[in-house]
């Protein structure tokens, strides 16, 4: 009886220390997701599964948040091994769809391991930097060696091929070391060299097919009924919303099935058409509010591992917003990356809830 009372008190104490605004934003986003997944599909089955993932994700969030995040440091080798196994299973036994082999079939469900491996990479990098680079990341050698141990995982994601997740993971790493106070001069030099080499590579290295892909991204109207179809229809959806939108369930692009993958890759296009510019801005403010609140926690804790973990998670959310929203308006190539907490999909939903659980765990348990 006494043990039960202590457990109950511990749960109450943990809940009282959670960041309630982060939770409020999270459930505002998943509510919007449920509404617009239905609007995009008009099928109750999709809504039912969406709600199921929200429930499972909530349970995962609660469990993770009540466990001290520092305990994960004891199991980094085990996590690494599990990641390798999962990615090798995907490589040799995974389901291939649209030219990419990223999923494992588990009964009626499909698991995308890279969504979870991405988080594991952030955890392992945060642990390595906190342990091995207490004097800071001061040069190119430090920048490379800090990420080197997880490079096999990144390479296995890249060859699926999943360039989007690879870029998001690497960008999150850059986000981490930048906020950690690393000497970023080597990164700026490398970035400048890459920018200066874009045209020569396009002009003299790329094949005709690859040049066509680049040109289609830059001018999708050149092949509106082919490779430019997705972006063209998405831009029509976003533009059709005007300032206040057509109203929920009134979007014609998704209802008439002009917009491909409306419930997943282009869920933001559906929202933009139905809620307009005002609704789009409000949704983006929710995401940046989530990132801001996560970053705010780093100001009141002293544990370097916890800070780095929050930097990495903030970077992941930020990059998913930039890549997905940029994709819908033609600013970045179509990569199939979901808008976390909005796009339909079990793996991305659970991964997002897991990250929020880690954020809350840091808030509750960090010194």
From TrEMBL:
Localization, UniProt: Membrane
Predominant cellular place of this UniProt entry's protein: membrane
Topological relation to the membrane, as annotated: Multi-pass membrane protein
A cellular component annotation (GO) from this entry: plasma membrane
Annotated TM spans: 21-39, 51-69, 78-94, 114-130, 142-159, 165-182, 187-205, 275-296, 308-332, 338-359
Gene Ontology MF: a single term: lipid-linked peptidoglycan transporter activity
Keywords: Cell shape, Membrane, Transmembrane, Transmembrane helix
One of the Pfam families matching this protein, by short name: FTSW_RODA_SPOVE
Protein name: Rod shape-determining protein RodA
GO biological process entries: cell division; regulation of cell shape
Keyword Membrane: yes
């Amino acid at each position: 009886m006494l043990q039960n009372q202590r457990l109950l008190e511990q749960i109450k104490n943990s809940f009282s220390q959670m960041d309630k605004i982060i939770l409020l934003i999270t459930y505002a986003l998943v509510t919007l997701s449920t509404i617009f997944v239905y609007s995009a599909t008009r099928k109750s089955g999709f809504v039912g599964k969406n709600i199921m993932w929200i429930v499972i994700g909530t349970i995962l969030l609660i469990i993770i948040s009540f466990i001290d995040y520092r305990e994960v440091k004891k199991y980094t080798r085990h996590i690494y091994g599990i990641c390798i196994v999962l990615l090798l299973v995907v490589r040799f036994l995974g389901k291939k769809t649209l030219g990419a082999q990223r999923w494992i079939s588990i009964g009626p469900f499909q698991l995308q391991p890279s969504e979870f491996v991405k988080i594991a990479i952030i955890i392992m990098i945060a642990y390595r930097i906190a342990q091995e680079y207490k004097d800071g990341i001061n040069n190119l050698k430090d920048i490379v060696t800090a990420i080197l141990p997880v490079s096999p995982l990144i390479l296995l994601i890249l060859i699926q091929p999943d360039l989007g997740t690879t870029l998001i993971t690497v960008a999150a790493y850059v986000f981490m070391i930048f906020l950690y106070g690393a000497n970023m001069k080597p990164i700026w030099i490398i970035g400048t060299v890459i920018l200066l080499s874009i045209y020569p590579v396009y002009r003299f290295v790329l094949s005709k097919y690859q040049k066509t892909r680049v040109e289609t991204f830059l001018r999708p109207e050149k092949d509106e009924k082919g490779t430019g179809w997705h972006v063209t229809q998405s831009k029509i959806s976003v533009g059709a919303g005007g300032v206040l939108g057509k109203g929920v369930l009134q979007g014609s692009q998704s209802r008439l099935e002009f917009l491909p993958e409306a419930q997943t890759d282009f869920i933001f296009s559906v929202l933009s058409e139905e809620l307009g510019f005002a609704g789009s801005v409000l949704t983006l403010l929710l995401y940046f509010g989530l990132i801001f609140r996560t970053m705010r926690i780093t100001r009141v804790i002293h544990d370097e591992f916890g800070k780095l973990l929050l930097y990495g998670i903030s970077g992941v959310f930020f990059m998913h917003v930039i890549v997905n929203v940029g994709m819908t308006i033609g600013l970045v190539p179509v990569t199939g990356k979901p808008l976390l907490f909005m796009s339909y999909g079990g793996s991305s939903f659970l991964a997002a809830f897991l990250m929020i659980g880690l954020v809350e765990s840091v808030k509750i348990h960090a010194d």
